[in-house]
Every structure is written in structure tokens, then in C-alpha cells.
């Protein structure tokens, strides 16, 4: 655990030195969500409080928030990929595209600004934590062949409005227009 924490701390220090940290805070602290498992985010306090501190104080905070928990599934990132329509399989899936003018909600979750949606979808389908299919099942009244893929990631794949590491891909073989993929946020 210490070795993992050291690697993350080094990466974090490099970002502070290179001036990248504040630019990432500009869209609500998604940087911390990439580094710290969701269960640990609440213990850090408000992200705005961290921006005025020096690297040593921030490093100490990260030392306290070790990465002992998690699935080991890192969130793939690529600048601006969450708002690139080419990363989405169809119009139905594009409703989950990152849009800074609208809030992400449990009913209409959005991908994070820099989440590599294409890689996330591919990884979820190729290496799912769970996968369910309704075919072949002659007793199933639903004639559409649908496979659902579930995968948990260690970081936030959505926006700070709806933080989640849960990803879902629904592949409809009979009607690809009905396929979709999205950050899963439980409804309350």
C-alpha cells in the first residue's frame, strides 16, 4: 500500500509543480475523483479548501487517504473524451455525453469531462465484473437479444454532481439503436 501511495504522491507532486492541478480543479475537482476511490472522497472535505494549500500539506492529505480499497480498475482518461460524440455507440447513448451547461442527475447521468468513454465501454464489455444475457431462452417473452455488462471502477467516471464508479453497457443485438452505455448512479 505504501508503494502505491508513493507512486500516486509522486504523480500528484508532478502535477502541482507543472501547474496542472488548478486547471483540473476548474471543473469541480474531477482530478481528485480520478486519484481517490469514491469512498474516500467524502473524508477530504471541500475541494476548494485544497487549492490554497501547498504540495506538502496536500501530500499529507493523500498519505492519509491510502488506496487500500478498490477493485484495481483504473478509469481510462483522455482529454475531452467525455464530450466527444464519436466515443458513443448511437444517439441513445449520446444523452450521457458530458455537458457543462447541464447538471448530471441519477436519471440522466453524464460521463466525466476527461473520461475515455470509448476505452471504458470496450473494457466493460471485454472484462466485465458481471454480464447477463436474455438469450438463448425459449421461455423468455422478450424477443430482443440483450446482453448487459457491469463493471466497477476505482475512480469517478461521471461528474462531481453524480460521483460513481459503476459502469453499464447494454448491447441490443436485434436493435442496435436501443443499445446504450452510461455511468450508473443509483436512484434514491
UniProtKB/TrEMBL annotation:
Taxonomic superkingdom: Bacteria
Protein name: ATPase
